[in-house]
Amino acid sequence: MSLDEKSFGQMPDGTPVKIYTLKNPHGMIARITEFGAIITELHVPDRKGKDGNVVLGFDDLDRYLRGHPFFGAIAGRVANRIGNGKFVLNGKEYALAKNNGPNHLHGGLKGFDKKVWKSKPLPAGGHSVAVEMSCFSPDGEEGYPGNLTLTVVYTLTDRNELRIDYKATTDKATPVNFTNHSYFNLAGSGDILAHELWLNADNYTPVDDGLIPTGEIKSVKGTALDFTKQTAMGARYKETGLKTPGYDHNFVLNYGGKRLDLAARVEEPKSGRVMEVLTTEPGVQFYTANGLDGSITGVGGVQYPRFGGFCLETQHFPDSINKPNFPSVVLRPRETFESTTVFKFSVK
Of these residues, 43, 106, 181, 249, which one is catalytic? Predict the structure, then answer.
């Protein structure tokens, strides 16, 4: 196990930005930068032992600063969408930045994905290496109430797991919903339509044309959203009901996020790579990079076409703050928000 740090460049105002490289003895490598607490690279051997980067990202800070679709970043203060960019909490209406048509997405115009986080390596155990990232969000930022502190710990284990632990506190009641927005491609390039997905989810949250949940919870049975049996991501991607083909849906995990349990499993037949996702969150957003178009080139000169990656964003449901029947996203003073997600890799 090893961990090292180096410069990743600097922000336009001169703020230095570091990047960390975490390695285990089995050839797994994670690179994580202070900018957005982004996972820039994640290398995992295939069934033949050949190394491959399985996430979408860039190898220089300047390219991130020019804009990107949340590659590998921590999204917050509230990940996913809030309808009409507003909510009522304790009798007061709050207006948020609208950065997705009439809606608020992934924390707004300057969410946690655009912050330079503070970082420190944590004392290494014999079986893991870890780095802690922390950020502060002042009262009123992007329209949210309360001074919020968030700490995220990335841990790479000798069991080929990348574990993400979140911990947050606030001095005023505020909605919170954090996720890591990594785009995965277990083949390393090309599209992900042959990847096979299983989801521990019998239900999903239907949405309107703006991808805001209606408040209903419906069965996946008989729909293109049924991944209760392992199915190729491309098998029914034109039948999802979205304006453009592909998936961008929140699934309701069967175990309700009450414990760390298996939420999803993905197999890539050619490489043999397998990824399992475990989480304490009640939902997961499955997204197939419908917005990519081949115009972005990432690490190693790899072009990212439409469907060039997939996201499994562990989360509370979108627009939960406006849906009283959804699990609550309100964090109050003297409470601590805690959440864990694990990405576990193997070969078949």
Answer: 181
Please count the structural domains in the chain.
Answer: 1
CA angle 274, 313, 27 (to 5 degrees): 35
Q: Which residues pair with 250 in a beta bridge?
A: 285
Backbone angles phi, psi at 23, to 5 degrees: -130, 145
Domain carrying residue 49? 2-347
Q: For the whole model, what pTM was predicted?
A: 0.98
Q: Which of these is catalytic: 41, 132, 268, 313? A: 313
Measured from the Cβ of residue 221, the count of other Cβ atoms closer than 10 Å reads 10
User: Residue 5 catalytic?
Assistant: no
pLDDT in tens, 281-304: 999 999 999 999 999 999 999 999
CATH number at residue 293: 2.70.98.10
Supply the DSSP symbol for 235.
S
Distance of CA 108 to the CA centre of its chain: 16
Q: Residue 163 corresponds to which amino acid?
A: R
Q: Which residues pair with 152 in a beta bridge?
A: 133, 166
State yes or no: is 316 an active-site residue.
no
